[in-house]
Design goal:
This protein is an alpha+beta fold. Helices cover 62% and strands 13% of the residues. The chain has helices at 2-5, 24-27, 34-85, 134-196; strands spanning 93-98, 104-109, 119-125, 128-133. The chain has a two-stranded antiparallel sheet with strand order 1-2. It has a two-stranded antiparallel ribbon with strand order 3-4. A hairpin with a 2-residue loop joins strand 3 (119-125) and strand 4 (128-133). The longest helix has 63 residues, at 134-196. The relative contact order is 0.16. This is Prefoldin subunit 3.
Length: 199
């Protein structure tokens, strides 16, 4: 039975593949081992479900984060493009931005004459904002966006892998449970048959 859970088959992130029970009698040689075996399968099933919940939470965070990164990148690129045009009027840019989930407002952004002086502040999280030159900010945002998209792809693959393994483990648990029910019924019938024998 221990060899079932020591499978070397894993996905790219090291999540082990669920074993499939073809014949319960080959796994449980002694009926007294049923509880131990069933508990191991239940434990593995709960681990898969926990991993799936964790990956789904990661996907939810990434699906919120990616649009924010895309919007921030788009704004930074617009600022850089505006400064590249070298507008002679030196008039500030009028921007509309989201202040809250349901609240938008306007802002005037003064573009410095020298592009090297063009800087943006990026929220890094944990109430930390850093000021970056526009080109560095764009490179950082592109890298963060690519990393987030890669993480989303990986997490989505893991969720699908876990979903398949959860199904396999649920089938295994059902087969083990049904085997035990059948064994108990057979044992009960055998005991009743023995009672009916008269010597």
């Amino acid at each position: 039975m221990d060899t079932l859970f020591n499978s070397t088959e894993k996905n790219a992130r090291g999540i082990p593949q669920a074993p499939f029970i073809e014949n319960v009698n080959e796994i449980i040689k002694d009926p007294s081992d049923f509880e131990l075996c069933f508990n191991k399968f239940q434990e593995r099933l709960s681990k898969y479900k926990f991993m799936q919940e964790s990956k789904l939470a990661t996907i939810k965070q990434l699906k919120t984060r990616i649009p924010d990164l895309e919007n921030t990148l788009k704004i930074c690129q617009s600022l850089r493009n505006h400064s590249d045009e070298g507008d002679e009027s030196d008039e500030p840019i009028l921007l509309h931005y989201q202040l809250n989930d349901t609240l938008y407002t306007k802002a005037q952004v003064d573009i410095p004459e020298d592009r090297a002086d063009l800087k943006v502040g990026l929220w890094l999280g944990a109430d930390v904002m850093l000021e970056y030159p526009i080109d560095e900010a764009i490179e950082l945002l592109k890298k963060k966006l690519a990393d987030s998209e890669q993480s989303l792809t990986v997490s989505t693959e893991d969720v699908e892998f876990l979903r398949e393994n959860i199904t396999t483990m649920e089938v295994n648990c059902a087969r083990l449970y049904n085997w035990d029910v059948q064994r108990r019924q057979d044992l009960k019938q055998a005991q009743e048959g023995t009672k009916n024998l008269k010597i």
